[in-house]
Structure formats: C-alpha cells, structure tokens
C-alpha cells in the first residue's frame, strides 16, 4: 500500500531536479479579442487611427499616465519621478525621467540593457517634425508651439536636406541625462495631456530607428509592458509580456463611492504588472463572425458588441440570462466619442465658403435622418450629437441643443431651392446653380455596417432629389485618400484622448489640415477661438469660447456630427479587472486572465 505514495514522491523529486525550463510550463494567460478595422502602422509618427494607437500605447510609455480607476480622471507619473514643474505661466515644463527604466530587449542593443533617458523623449518628439516622415500628427504637435521646432522643420524643407536631429531646439532639450525641458511660445495650462499620450509620445531609442529604417513600423521597441511578437497586416497581431519590464504594481485611487472601482482595486491591488502573458488581436471587420468568435469561446473579450447583437447581449441594459449563466460579464456606457460625416472643403462641389456651398452642406446635413440610422443600423446604440464636444469631457453639456441634430427635409429642400440647386434639365434630379449635374461622391467601406449606412444615405438624399454615387474601399485606403484630400464626402469617428473638450476641435483647426482636420476646414475666426482655448485656464471665459466654437461648427457645417455611441462590452468569466478607459487607450496591463480558463478557451 506504500508503493503508489513512494512512486509519487520519487516523481515529484525527479521533476524538481530537472533543469529550469524542462518542467512543464504553466499555461499562459492570454487575452484574445478582435479589432473592428485594420491597423495602419506601429510607428507613432505615422498613426492617427485608434486601432494602431491602442497597440502602440502598450509598447511605448509617456512620462505620465492616467489613474486607471479614478473618475473623474487624474494624472500620475509613469516614467517620470514626479509630476511636472510648470513655470512662466505654463510656458516652461520640466520633467525628470526615473532612472533604471529600460527598453525591451532587441537585437539592435547587441545584448546590452538600454536605459531610457531624457534624450529619448526629445528624439521622439523631434520625429514628428521631420518633413520626410510626413506625420499626420505634426499639425497637432505644432499647435503646442514648442520654441524652434517648426523653424527646424522649415529649415529642412527649405534646404532640401535631411532633418538635423542633432541641431539644438530651444523648446525641446535634455538638460541632463534624466531631465527633459519643454518651452512653449504660448501658455498651455493643460500640456500634461500631451505628456500623457503613450500611444504617440513615448520614448523612442534613436538607434532602433537607425537600424530598422523603413521597417520601423514592424519593429516598435519601447519600455512598455508588452512587445510585438507577430504581425500579419490587417489580419492578426500578437504581443507578449515584456520580460524585462520593471517592477510596477497595480495601484489606483477610485472614488470612495465608486463601488466598481473599489471592487477592482480590492482584487488586484499590489499585483505586479502586466498580469497577462500574451494578447492576441484578430482583425474581423464583419460583425457576425466577430460576435460568434466571442460566443464560441475563441475570444474572451468583445469590445463594442455589434449593434445588431447588443439587445441580445444586454436587453434593457441588463445581461441576458443565458450569458449570465456562463459567467459572462457585461458593461454598457455612453462612450467618449463622436461619429461625423464630413465634407472636403477643397472640393469644387461641396467645398468652399460661399453662401450656396454652405447652403448645400447644411441641406445635406438637415436631410440626414440620423435618428433612423441609430435605430435601424446601430440598433439604438447611440444618442444624437448636438456639437463637436465629446461626452464625459469637461465642457460637454448634455442640455445643449442645436441644428446639428435636426432632421428636416422640408428645410433642406427650401435651402436648396433658394440657392439654385434645382432640376434644370428635367431628369428629376437637382443640378448645381450653374446647370452642371449635382452628383455627390460618397466614400464608404465595404463591410456590412457600411453597406447599411450607405442605404440610409441613398434613401435620405433621394428624398431631396440629390444623386449619390458611392466610392467603396478598405478603411486604411479611404483614410489615406482623406488625408490627401482625394475625396468629397466621408465619415469618421473619434474618441477623446483627454478630459479636456478641446481635443475634438482639432478637426476644425486650420493648422491641422491633412492631419486631424480631414475636412480641410480653414476659417480665421475659428482658428482664433482654437488659439484662445489653448491658452486660457479653465473658467467662464473659456467656457464661453466653447459655445462660440459650437456656433461656428453649425454655421459652416464642415462636419455633420451625427451621434455618440452607447457601447456594450462583454468579457468571459476568465477576464478580471476590465474597466473601459475614459480617455486613454492602454488597459491590458491592468487586466488579469485565469490561465486555466484561458487555455481551455484556446482549445475550443
């Protein structure tokens, strides 16, 4: 009767005597879910889409970050030793990098540990100014007016020589190995929001850029909790825990009355980050297969349940009983986002600032039945937008109403008649005031939801006797065309990256044409409002400017802001600690996965 016990003891002793790595490895904790659209790049200077930026936010690290559980949001140091020192009326910002932080191992470093230093942030920001990179985010960076940076860019353009990364820039300096100082031409009281954007402004090692050159997007190397290990473009992305990531532990400060936040903190406080070993991202543009991948256990998380399945998942905002029995968790919230249709203001048909062109844009906007779109296409998962200000940001006013949300085919028809958009050749369709045919060229994606939206647009415009032709393409292709101004009408979504409401107004800033301002809208009165919003501290004077910005947005109508989404997220029982970020994109390091359940899901 002693033999089985003795054999077990011998087996255990043998296992313990095996060399490291010979024992059976513990099952990996894997977070699996899908993006709804393809990524574009993993070079921070080349991206302004949410999918690529979600990935880079987990690879690179900015000086500051957000407290993951705090609501309202709060900043805290990430790679910095302390909060920044602001002086000279918020024109000078000084930050000290914490010593002992290292980049993920990479062959470029030839086996050495590469420490993060102040110069890595200086170099990373300079890259946005390099004209050879044609960064779509340069106009945003330029808006902060770092002293001498734009001049250095112009020097490279004028001389037709490569951008000189060694040339000193007055407003962007490493004072010593660990101290970064940024000096601005104008006050920027909320500049910490710039300093907290890991997806864009994390530290970058210069030798990595030199080594990989045009292939840098395939080799993003940062100090963050994850590193890229696999990438099949527009298909599959895999990241794994950065084995050299420093000791960093879960900590947060949710409000005392925040039950959800307090429960997450109680469960995870003190755990070393990241808690998951691997993240696998599939690109699934069609809604049904993305939904089925979650139901079948292939994914343990689904972000933004497709609208047609949201009522099945959470009818009346409560988790469906069949899902609850499986241990599925569900959340529904108004997202910090907006979705808009926008016009190319450089286009000869819908662009321009003359009365008849403004009337055409406003008529098209009045003719869009967005409430019907929300009901039929998005299955009620949205609320009508009134202005280009995003929910949960400081200046969002849920009581504000404007023509932006109005649906009135009668007013639209009257505007078109008044400004000469009438049928002049008797074919039943409206023509332009000079007699040329009026045909709208509307860009649209190829997925099922886009097809449903195009049917709505076709119906709405036909009711106004306006002919529409749709130009189909993949999302990255349409984005590239929009940046270049090669479109007439398209639509775009945007998620707020900070608690300040000014972020959404970048799309109207004349200096950001070709970047965030894809409508190519240029009006000096709006640019002046935007400039003053950047300089003023929070208060009544600044709030009055937001009201003026809303008025100008409606008056010129470069964008028809359509709706804000109600978003439903679901997680299987193996995922713990998820909380939708309010304004930031990184959250994988703050979540945990039960390894045994995760491994089981992978085998289904």
Structure description:
With 604 residues, this protein is of the alpha+beta class. Among the domains are: 161 residues, Dipeptide-binding Protein, domain 1; 229 residues, Dipeptide-binding Protein, domain 3 (Roll), CATH 3.10.105. Helix content is 31%, strand content 17%. It contains 20 helices and 20 strands. Strands 11, 12, 13, 14, 17 and 18 form a 6-stranded antiparallel sheet that branches. Strands 1-10-9-8 form a 4-stranded mixed sheet. Strand 8 and strand 9 form a beta hairpin. Helix 13 packs antiparallel against helix 15 and helix 18 runs antiparallel to helix 19. It is globular, with a radius of gyration of 26 Å. It starts with a helix and ends with a helix.
In short:
A hairpin with a 3-residue loop joins strand 8 (226-232) and strand 9. 31% of the residues lie in helices and 17% in strands. The chain contains 20 helices and 20 strands.
List the helices and strands and how they pair.
Layout: H1 3-17, E1 30-35, H2 50-56, E2 64-66, E3 75-77, E4 85-87, E5 92-96, H3 118-129, H4 138-142, H5 149-159, E6 172-174, E7 179-183, H6 192-195, H7 198-201, H8 206-212, E8 226-232, E9 236-241, H9 259-268, E10 278-283, H10 287-295, E11 301-302, H11 307-313, H12 321-325, E12 329-334, E13 337-343, H13 355-366, H14 370-376, E14 382-384, H15 409-418, E15 439-444, H16 448-463, E16 467-472, H17 475-484, E17 489-495, H18 524-535, H19 540-556, E18 559-571, E19 575-576, E20 592-593, H20 595-602
Parallel strand pairs: 1-10, 15-16
Antiparallel strand pairs: 2-3, 4-5, 5-7, 6-7, 8-9, 9-10, 11-18, 12-18, 13-17, 13-18, 14-18, 19-20
Helix pairs in contact: 13-15, 18-19
């Amino acid at each position: 009767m002693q033999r089985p016990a003795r054999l077990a003891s011998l087996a255990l002793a043998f296992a313990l005597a095996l060399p490291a790595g010979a024992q059976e490895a513990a099952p990996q904790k894997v977070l699996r879910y899908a993006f709804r659209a393809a990524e574009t790049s993993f070079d921070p200077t080349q991206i302004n889409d949410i999918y690529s930026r979600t990935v880079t936010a987990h690879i690179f690290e900015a000086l500051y970050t957000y407290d993951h559980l705090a609501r309202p949001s709060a900043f805290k140091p990430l790679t910095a030793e302390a909060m920044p020192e602001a002086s000279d009326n918020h024109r000078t910002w000084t930050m000290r990098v914490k010593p002992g932080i290292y980049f993920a191992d990479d062959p470029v470093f030839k086996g050495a540990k590469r420490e993060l230093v102040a110069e890595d942030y200086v170099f990373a920001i300079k890259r946005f100014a390099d004209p050879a990179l044609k960064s779509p985010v340069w106009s945003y960076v330029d808006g902060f007016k770092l002293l001498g940076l734009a001049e250095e860019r112009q020097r490279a353009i004028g001389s037709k020589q490569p951008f000189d990364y060694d040339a000193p820039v007055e407003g962007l300096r490493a004072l010593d190995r660990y101290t970064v100082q940024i000096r601005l031409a104008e006050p920027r009281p909320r500049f910490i929001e710039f300093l907290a954007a890991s997806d864009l402004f994390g530290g970058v090692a210069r030798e990595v850029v030199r080594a990989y050159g045009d292939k840098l997007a395939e080799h993003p190397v940062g100090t963050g909790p994850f590193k890229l290990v696999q990438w099949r473009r527009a298909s599959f992305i895999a990241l794994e825990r950065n084995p050299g990531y420093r000791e960093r532990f879960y900590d947060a400060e949710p409000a005392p009355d925040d039950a959800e936040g307090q429960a997450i903190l109680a469960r995870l406080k003190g755990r070393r980050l990241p808690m998951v070993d691997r993240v696998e991202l599939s690109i699934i543009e069609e809604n049904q297969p993305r939904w089925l991948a979650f139901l079948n256990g292939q994914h343990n998380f689904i972000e933004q349940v497709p609208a047609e399945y949201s009522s099945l998942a959470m009818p009346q905002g409560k988790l469906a009983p069949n899902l609850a029995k499986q241990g599925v968790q569900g959340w529904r919230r108004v997202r910090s986002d907006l979705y808009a249709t926008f016009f190319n203001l450089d286009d000869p048909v819908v662009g321009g600032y003359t009365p008849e062109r403004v009337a055409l844009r406003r008529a098209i906007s009045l003719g869009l039945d967005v409430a019907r779109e929300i009901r039929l296409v998005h299955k009620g998962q949205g609320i009508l937008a009134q202005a280009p200000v995003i929910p949960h940001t400081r200046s969002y006013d849920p009581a504000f109403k404007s023509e932006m949300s109005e649906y009135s085919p009668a007013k639209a028809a009257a505007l078109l008649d008044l400004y000469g958009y009438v049928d002049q050749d008797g074919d039943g369709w409206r023509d332009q005031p000079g007699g040329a045919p009026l045909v709208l060229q509307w860009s649209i994606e190829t997925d099922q939801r886009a097809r449903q939206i195009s049917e709505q647009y076709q119906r709405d415009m036909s009711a106004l006797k306006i002919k529409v032709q749709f130009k189909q393409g993949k999302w990255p292709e349409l984005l590239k065309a929009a940046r270049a101004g090669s479109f007439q009408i398209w639509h775009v979504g945007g998620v707020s990256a900070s608690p300040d409401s000014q972020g959404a107004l970048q799309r109207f800033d004349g200096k950001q044409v070709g970047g965030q301002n894809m409508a190519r809208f240029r009006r000096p009165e709006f640019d002046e409002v935007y400039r003053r919003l950047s300089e003023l501290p929070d208060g009544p004077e600044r709030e009055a400017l937001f009201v003026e910005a809303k008025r100008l947005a409606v008056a010129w109508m470069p964008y028809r802001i359509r709706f804000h989404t109600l978003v439903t997220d679901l997680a299987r029982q193996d995922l713990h600690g998820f909380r939708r970020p309010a304004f930031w994109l990184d959250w994988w390091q703050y979540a945990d996965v039960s390894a045994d359940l995760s491994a089981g899901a992978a085998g289904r």
